[in-house]
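pls ignore typos typing on phone
4'-deoxy-4'-aminopyridoxal-5'-phosphate + seq
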Amino acid sequence: SSLFHAVEMAPRDPILGLTEQYVADTNPKKVNLGVGVYYDDNGKLPLLECVQKAEEKMMAAHAARGYLPIDGIAAYDAAVKSLVFGADSEPVKSGRVATVQALGGTGGLRVGADFLRKLNPSAKVLISDPSWENHRALFTQAGFTVETYPYYDAAKKGINFDGMLTALNTAPAGTVIVLHACCHNPTGYDLTAAQWDQVVAAVKARKLVAFLDMAYQGFGQGIAEDGLAVQKFVASGEDFFVSTSFSKSLSLYGERVGALSVLCADKDEAARVLSQLKIVIRTNYSNPPTHGGQIAATILNTPELRALWERELAGMRTRIKEMRTALVEKLKAKGVQRDFSFITQQVGMFSYSGLTKDQMVRLRNEFGVYGIESGRICVAALNTKNIDYVTESIAKVVA
Ligand code: PMP
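k done
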């Protein structure tokens, strides 16, 4: 019999399945709020002007396409360090951050996970409950046992912070804690500054390992503001991991532009850590691709393009906030009794809408409004043309 006769069909990606159903739906009013991407007010995936301008510069340079170094474009890695830690920050100036270009935020997480697994094979990983669904799979595939810490409190429509802290305070030393640095996916609820202080203190006291996933820097309150968690961990004096991504902030989803940065005790340690990260990369895909990293490096290192990017990013951030406010106001205007104002307290692309699974199923089947059955909707897929229909539909299912 064939080599593969016993291979089982793996479960389908639930979100991709939803998208397929959406594509097949003939309802002309259909709206896809299940996605994890930012669409503009015309419902289109934007190609940022700063990206177009960077690409024009790159085209004019007619650069050959040699292999990149294993850790990527040096100017890219340097720009990521500045963005994540601050250009004049002590960790950057002292050279104690090891940064590698990675295949999106996912790639950054996986390179970090593979390195961590070699470092401490018996460590457990804790992810938030709920979390981005790939966290569990990714750390499991890297060989870890993955468990959760409490995060979302459905009754309170907020964070179960006591539960989270208790989980950290009872985790064994060496446990890897995956934290959403900003714009928590899927709930939209971020920790306050005071809560971050407590998390950082617990990580330090319990000798845990923080792994910050910062996939949405600039989508919450601003580039610097969204880096608050990173700053707090730096101030604690602890070593930690941070994966970052330009998928959303530069709308470069398909180019796979991300990074992993590891804050080390000193420059010598950073050099040794970097050498190990390079082995992980070398044995997986050898070195990263040129195009996306070059776009990001060009934008971040060219003052006019950097300024243009910051304006465009602010535009995306502001539009999402406007959609949150509009959603709440329109639901109220349609006579919905339930208070949805919590949606404006959430940040980033997503909202845990508080709608039940049955309501989400009705939205999809009766109205062609597609969201995740957990109640997660992508606020960044709402626009001035579809929001009335979406709010009308929600009003009908909650009535
Ligand atoms: N982490 C989180 C929390 C995410 O939501 C995502 C993307 N949706 C990623 C990581 C991965 O991002 P990328 O597409 O850059 O790999």
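Residues 36, 104-106, 132, 180, 185, 213, 215, 245, 247, 258 surround 4'-deoxy-4'-aminopyridoxal-5'-phosphate (CB under 6 Å). The chain is about 45% helix and 15% strand. more later
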